[in-house]
Amino acid sequence: MHESHKSKYSIHPGSKKMYRDIKKLYWWPNIKANIATYVSKCLTYAKVKAEHQRPSRLLVQPKIPKWKWDNIMMDFVTKLPKSSQGYDTISVTVDRLTKSAIFMPMKEKDPSDKLARMYLKELYLKEAKILWYTAMLRSKV
Above 70 in pLDDT, residue 50? Predict the structure, then answer.
């Protein structure tokens, strides 16, 4: 493989061309996989050969939220050992602006409407009190 890949005449071919050239003279089990591995480890091939992929676009930064809890991320940690109350999942809700997080224990089989009720109870009732209190303080100033 070394002779076939690095000779003056072949100039570091890719794995497909190298396979076509070698299979005319040699055969061994897993020949394609061996050739592909060999070519992928060749630093000269990696530097010289152009990639035939469309260049990736520029990254787009997500919009920064203006209010806390206006834009959230949710995820679930599942398959945990059951707690004494029977919970085996943790619902994780993170505010993108403040990076505050709410962790709510639940059961993996709980329906989505129960999750919605827990979320409203946990977040919006607490935040509504805070927002109302803040508004009351501002109105007195």
Answer: no
